[in-house]
Amino acid sequence: MVNFDIIRCGRAVLHVTDLEKSKEFYDALGFIETEADSENIFLRGLEEHNHHSLWLKKKAEPALEVISYKVRSEEDLDALAGFFESQQRQVIWMEAGSQNALGRSLRVMDPNGLPVEYYARMDTAERMLQRYDVYKGAKVQRIDHFNCMVPDVEGAHNYYIDELGFACSEYTAGEEERIWAAWLHRKPSVHDVAFMNGPGPRLHHVGFWLKDPMSLIDGCDYLAAKGFAPGIERGPGRHGLSNAFFLYLRDPDGHRIELYNGDYLTSDPDFKPIRWDLNDPMRQTFWGHEAPDSWFEEATEVLDVHSGRKRGLEEPLLKKRKPNFVT
């Protein structure tokens, strides 16, 4: 039994090549800019009371630096460090003050080769939930989840459940009942992190919660009016998996963002994971239309927390293919 308490997904740190273009894009989605300088932009959703859920860093190449989870206490950080070290996973401590607005944190490479961070404390910021005078675009409310492309989804599924205390809400099975994708959570929603089969490790997308389905439409209209229509990759639509409404976008550096609303409660301990067949056309899109090839093939490369260099890609254990939707 785990002796640490991971609360939820907390933030993503993305490298971008042009801060001004990125600022215009994320502003059009309705993010609140907490703080910025010539090298960084810190963004949060309207209902978030923490300093940021998205940190954009100006760098020469786009990449994911780290995905971060919030834990309950400083003691949980120490327990996590002991756990990782018992597995011979090297931990990097980031002392309080070494990252803007963040307390002490630890970084580690997970078994999938993903750069992951855990923290307990972040500076607070004004909660803008009822500041309707600043609502615009898609009116992003809060961070909801990460989706990661990995070579061994079953291995990721088992590790996060058995070792880190996550639970599975839904999963996709292919040939011989091998798990092709899995949706795992700590907070009582469908997911804090999803894993999908493919060359990796890579970040497929970061998902942000909206207040209602109409916000997806408002977001599309605002993006189109601002000249960002070519960045609309997929949707709006409704997922079969999660039952949520979705819109997938590509920011100016190609990072994929999902705007998301309408999943369900998963808090009951006797909740049974929902199985989907890989070739079920209602799985990815409840209304049946297919995702574009780019959605299956393209994703953000990730950095090693120790070297700072991009991780090489490994081919997936399961056959890499776009699902064959049978009608």
TrEMBL record:
Its cofactor is Fe(2+). InterPro entries: DHPA_dOase_Mn/Fe, Glyas_Bleomycin-R_OHBP_Dase, Glyas_Fos-R_dOase_dom, GlyoxalaseI/FosfomycinResist, VOC_core, Xdiol_ring_cleave_dOase_1/2. Gene3D superfamilies: 2,3-Dihydroxybiphenyl 1,2-Dioxygenase, domain 1 (3.10.180.10). PROSITE patterns: EXTRADIOL_DIOXYGENAS, VOC. The keyword Metal-binding applies. It comes from the Bacteria. One of its GO terms (molecular function) is ferrous iron binding. It holds the Pfam family Glyoxalase. The keyword Nucleotide-binding does not apply. SUPFAM superfamilies: Glyoxalase/Bleomycin resistance protein/Dihydroxybiphenyl dioxygenase. Keywords: Aromatic hydrocarbons catabolism, Dioxygenase, Iron, Metal-binding, Oxidoreductase. Residues 8-121, 142-262 form the VOC domain. Belongs to the extradiol ring-cleavage dioxygenase family. This is 3,4-dihydroxyphenylacetate 2,3-dioxygenase. It comes from Salibacterium qingdaonense.
